[in-house]
Amino acid sequence: MKMRNRHWQKFLKFGKGLNTLTIKELRAVCQPAYKQKIDPLMEWYLLRPFSIYFTWFFVRLGVGPNWVTLMGMLLGCAGSGLLMLGQVGWGVAGAVLIWLGFLFDCVDGEVARYSGKGSLRGTYLDYFVGGVNDMAIMLGLSFYVAQTMGWPLVLVVTAGVAMAYLEKIIGLYAQCVIYRNIRASWDSVEVDEAQSYDDKVWKEMGLWSRLLRVPFETFFRASLILVAFIVGASVGEHQVVAWAWVLILVLGYTLVAKSFYSEFFQDRVGTSMADFIGALKGRV
């Protein structure tokens, strides 16, 4: 009994300040207005309305944002593991876990904003977990499609994993080149200034540009996978999921080609670096 009372007191202590804080007030702190312009459209309208309730719960328990990020990775990887079983029932469960993993990707940032515990380490972990989940999702989905459709396992898995890898690596290398050259060209650049520049670029995106990005967003794919498994389970047909996999591959490799063309042939890397340095010089 004493042990139970101690845990209950700990629970109340961690949640101090939330007793009088409404969900609306918590949302104002954790989901500031500028996020509506930065977040992907589907994430803002499908995840943020629900993520705040999970945020309230984790803040109440005193769970830090990095732990929430790791829980999101566990959900994503567990869901992908269920897809590998090649059974439609487990596939639906796995797709739900994957979808929840993306929900937790919103929650960790909200917990960080409320608690003031945001850090570069947490940002790194967030990006790392995102990459792991994207790879795991394509791996699990490809295994499912290969098993249920009788397609060559090696070819199907290679096509899916290669797409996820190329998407990440092209953007990653572009950012590495930009910031390495910024450092070499302008020693006064600080991380917060780099972040403010990135935010400025996102804020200047128009609605049409953001709508065009929707089919290429990873959360769109997670939602497509979930819908495909639910429909496939209801009609007893694996082809629905297989066509979803094909669509994801088409979108993914289209994005890979467009990104490489922009970075290499149109030199978006050099243009971004020049704009960044010019903006910083204008402040001095």
UniProtKB/TrEMBL annotation:
Coiled coil: none annotated. The chain crosses the membrane at residues 45-63, 83-104, 124-145, 151-174, 218-236, 242-261. Keywords: Membrane, Transferase, Transmembrane, Transmembrane helix. One of its GO terms (cellular component) is membrane. One of its GO terms (biological process) is phospholipid biosynthetic process. One of its GO terms (molecular function) is phosphotransferase activity, for other substituted phosphate groups. This is CDP-alcohol phosphatidyltransferase family protein. It comes from Motiliproteus coralliicola.
